[in-house]
Every structure is written in C-alpha cells, then in structure tokens.
Amino acid sequence: MALLQKSKPNFRKLLKIAPLILGVLALFFIYFPIFWLILLSFSAEPLTGVPGGWHFDWYIDMVYGADRREGEAFVGDFQLKEPLIKSISIATLTSVLCIISAVLVGRVLPNMKHQGLLLFGFLVPLMVPGIVVGMAMFLFFRIGLGIKMGTWSLALAHFVWAFPFCLLVILVVVSRLDQRVLEAARDLGASKIQTFFQIELPIIKPGIFAAGFFGFLLSFNELPFSIFMRKGDMTLPIYLWIQSGAHNSSVPLIFALSTIITLISMLITYLIVRLGFKNG
Amino acid sequence: MEILSSKVFILKVTSMDLKKYNRYPIVLFALSWLALVILPLLVVVMMSFLKTKGIRIKWDWGFYSYMKMIQFGGNDVVFQTIRIGLTVTLINFLIAFPFAFWLAKTLKNISFKLIIFTALTVPFFLSPVSRVIVWRSILGLDGLLNNFFLNIGLVDQPIEWLIFSEFAVHLGLMAQYFPSMVWPLYLSLSLIDDETIEASLDLGAGILRTTIYVILPLALPGVVAGVIFCLVPMLGDAVIPQQMGGGNILTISHSLSNYIGSRSYVLGAAIASIVLLVLIILIIILWFVFKPYGGLGKVFGQMRQ
Please, are residues A95 and A215 in contact by the beta-carbon 8 Å criterion? Predict the structure, then answer.
C-alpha cells in the first residue's frame, strides 16, 4: 500500500491496475483452454473451435463406442476400460503409499538433524523434469540392474512424483501442530501409540486427506514419468497422449474424456484447498 | 525476559522428548529414496561419460556421447530448448513479479485472495494433455481465431504460425509454468516487512529504485527458486512441444524418447546430464543467495506447497 501512496497520482493508478491485469491475463491463458474444452466437448463441430449445436454425442460415443453411428464423420477406436481401471488402481496404490510415507517422514522431519538437506533431497522430483527422472530410473533399473519394467515400476514412478507434494502438505499441518499437546498427553499417561492415534492423528487428519487426494490426482494425471517407466501398461494419460498424437479422428472423444477428467480433478482440488483454508 | 526463557525451555524439552521418537523408519525411507531417485540420477551422469558399442555399454571413459550428440545435431535441440525455456521464464518472471507483489502486499480482501490461490493451485493437479489439446481447435488453420480473423476480414488467408510453431510452444509453456513462478515469488515477497519498503520510499527513493535496490534483493531467494521450479521442469516438458509444436519444434524430450527408443542410452544420458547441469548451476546460485538467510535448509523448511 505504502508503495502506491507515495507516487504520482496517474502513475499510481497504473501501478495499482497493471499487476492485476498481467496476472489475470496469465490466469486467462491457463483457464481459457479449460473452459473452451468444456464448451467444445458439448458442441457439434469441436475441431473448428466454434461452440454450438449442443449435444452429448461425444460422451455417449465414449461409453458405447462410436461404431453405433456408422457412416458418420468420427469413427474412432476408443478403448477406455483398461486404461481407466489401470489408472485408478495405480492412483489408489500411490495415494495409500503417499499417506503412509508422508506421515512417517513429515512428523519426524522437523526434528531431524540435516532436515534441510533431507527435504531438499525429497523435493528433487519437483525440480528435475519428470521425463529425466523417469529415464534415469529406467536406465538404472532396466539397463544397470537388469530388472524388467512392469506395473510395479509405473507405480513406483508415480509414487516418486507424488510424494514431494504430499510431504509438503503434511509438513504444513505438522508445523501448525502444537507439540505441547502431545507432551501433555504423554504426561497424563497415554502411551506413544495412544498419543498418535487419539491426539495427533485427529489433528493432522485434514492434511492426511489432502495428501491422499493429491497423491491420487497426481498419479492419475501423471504422464512424463510413465513414458519410460511403463512396459505395455496403458494408463489414461498415456492413452490420451497416444490418441492425441496420432492425428486420427477421435479428437472429439478426447475432448469429452478430458472434460470429465478435468472437472473431477478441479472439484477434488477445490475441496482440498477449501479444507486447507478452513483449518487455518 | 522470563517469558522468553520459559518458551525456550519448553522448546528445549519438547525437542528433547521428540528425539526419543523412533527415527529408524525415516532413516530407512531416506536411504531407499536415495537409492530410488538420487542414485539413478548420479548413474545417468556417470553413464553420459561412457561409450557404447552396438547396444552394449563399454567401461571406457570420455566425452564420446557428447561428441556423438553434436555429430547428430543434438546440441541444436538442446540450445533451442534452453533458449525457449529462458525466454518463457523471463516473460513469466516479468508478469509474475508485479502480480506476486500485488498479491502479497496490496491485496487485502481475503476471499478474493483465496480465489486466486485456488486458481494458482488447481493447474498442478490437472492432466497436462487435457489442458493443452484444445489449443489446436482455437489456434488451428480452421480453428476459432483464424475463423474469426477471416470473417472480420483482417486476413485473407489463415495465419499459419498460430499453431505447431515456436509461438504456440511459448504460449503453452507460459501458461503451464506461470503458477510455479508465482508461488516462490509470493512466499519471499510476503516475508518482506512493509516498514522496509516504506522506509525506502520515505527516504526519497522512487518506486523503480525501491524495487531494484530494496525489494528485489530481499526477494532474491524467491526469484531464484522461481527460476528453478519454472525453467528446469520446462526443459523436459514432453506434452506441450508435442501438442503445440506438432513435431516442428524439437525439444529435449523428443531427443530423449528418440535416443532411448533407438537404444542409444549414453546419448540420452548426455542430454539428461545437461538438464541436470542447468539445475545444479541454479542450485549453487540459490545456495549463495540463501546464505545470509541462515542457509538453504532453513528457508526450505518454511516453504509451503
């Protein structure tokens, strides 16, 4: 505020507005494609980019297959079931693994020696591009150690990608936790296990939920790690990637599928963010 | 003074008691993390200095893979990726810095702030392909923009460079990595005391001067962190060059897929090592920038999401 009061009036106005305009413009470029995607997925001719002629055909095609309307423009080969099941199961596994390890690490980390270095090491996947970490893991395990890739390596890669986010969420909750409460519980005769399950767990529960959902979402939408760490396994993002790169005619169906994925992801993220802000 | 010392006492007691926590699980976890993530990265750097014969790797140290990469013209791709990455990072910084300052210091409306925070968080959790695939319909030859321009008579022929071009890749990357730039900047800017800025202004420095000599140095850790989280992941982005470059703009991710696909593992390792080198240089800069703030670790401990 002070910055604005001291400057000349007209310049002041500009300074007040400019950052907002810039930021909103950047956010516009993030959200306009998402918004437009949703509109186009209900439109008759999505490829022209002009919404209109509203219908749900692409969604129906996605479920029942486009072959039911033979002779029409878009007949694609769209096999959703297998990738969907694979993605959901790997995401669930990742989410559970993330909760356990993030809680395990997160509540002890602030009291560790060399905690900065440790945290830095855990955050490496956030800084190094996913495709590089994925390739490094592939070269290490497959070429270096000769272990065959499979669903295990895909799940492992997803875990490596999602864990840093979950750890940060847990760290935020733990840093707000008053350690004296735990101290009191111990003084009043609760055992370590009792203290954890009856005192600590309820307090950090929002963080655990958030970490679980984040782990699920990050794994569900993960692509770069999966490129090298999979062996024939088809997850939903990979399926979308291959379909969208093929320049074939199933693009409208991809729009419909992307819309569903995006809306669900947004809803879950919104709920977590609200959960987070409610608790301080 | 008494209150302070009692607080210190409590802190001491709790931290001593917490030391009794079983620390083996986390040590075990950290070691497996080291083996799963850090070690492979080191092995890749090591591999980039090895030689291949056919598809077998030979224990023969040297710069063979890097020479081979230059021979294949792989260095052009690397330089192009780094150039695009630096341009987009600079644009994002120029947009994000005033925005983050406004968010940290000027904006007081809590619910509005909440909306913007949410808007900046949500993109991390969306599917990358879903987010950018629609650009084709907007920027394509018979897409929305070209339709619009043709209709109002601004152009007589569709504009070709809107999609599958360097412009499109820049646009896509900018939108994708904007939140990664805003968050660290916001965190470091919100830690600056309002009084410091006011003092600078009271003492007669203009806005530009205050920004350059007071705000920017104090926010430097956030700036460097922003560059790390924005630039380095961008270098390896696979989705946007494919979706918005359409194979015309080759980046590092293309090379990686090609080399690994053709089993030229050491070449892939060389390219990955270059990306890691960029990261290491930035981290060393960050290390020095953080020194006056009590070290990298302490500030990292304060980082939130």
Answer: yes
Chain B residues within an 8 Å CB radius of A36: 134, 137-138, 144
- Residue B292, both tokens: 């006056």
Domain locations along chain A = 2-68, 81-248
Q: Taking the model in full, what pTM does it have?
A: 0.85
What CATH number matches the domain at A81-248, 3.30.70.100, 3.40.630.30, 1.25.40.10, 1.10.3720.10?
A: 1.10.3720.10
How many angstroms separate the CA of residue B98 from the nearest CA in chain A? Answer: 5
Angle A115-122/A151-176 helices, nearest 10 degrees? 140
Note whether A154 and A195 are within 8 A (CB). no
Q: What is the domain class of B65-302 according to CATH? A: mainly alpha
| CA B268/CA A262 separation, integer angstroms | 33
Q: What are the pLDDT digits (tens) for B78-100? A: 999 999 999 999 999 999 999 99
Tell me the pLDDT tens digit for each residue of A179-194. 788 888 888 888 888 8
Residue B130 and residue A244: Cα distance in Å, rounded?
A: 10
DSSP string of B24-45, one letter each residue: HHHHHHHHHHIIIIIHHHHHHH
Chain A residues with CB inside 8 Å of B101's CB? 19
Longest dimension (CA), chain B: 80
What is the β-pairing status of strands B51-53 and B56-58? Answer: antiparallel
Q: What is the mean pLDDT of residues A6-18?
A: 66
Q: Please state, in angstroms and rounded to a whole number, the distance separating the CA atoms of residues B133 and B72.
A: 31
Could you give the C-alpha distances from A198 to A107, A194, A205, in angstroms and in order? 15, 6, 11
d(CA B60, CA B49): 8
CB pairs under 8 A between A and B: 319
Do residue A19 and residue B238 have CB atoms under 8 angstroms apart?
A: no
List chain B domain ranges. Answer: 1-47, 65-302
